[in-house]
Amino acid sequence: MTQADDRILETLADSNLILSPRVLSANIDYSRHYLSTRLGTLRDAGLVDRVDEGLYQITDRGRAYLEGELDTEDLEE
Prior knowledge:
Largest sheet: 2 strands, antiparallel
Order of helices and strands: HHHEEHH
Shape: globular
Structural class: mainly alpha
Oligomer: single chain
């Protein structure tokens, strides 16, 4: 997990919205391309869902990670 991953998850959780990499980029100061890559990784870990092409929302598992109920070892399983 990277600092960007935490910021992505926090932004999705705080906004409670379905967001695109472009919108995330405008709000957390990472490039759209980098965020797209990280969102794919977060999706593979079950922390975000792709709702539609290029649109993502946080999952219950993602919220659990933010609340400290999961650590990085749990994500690798």
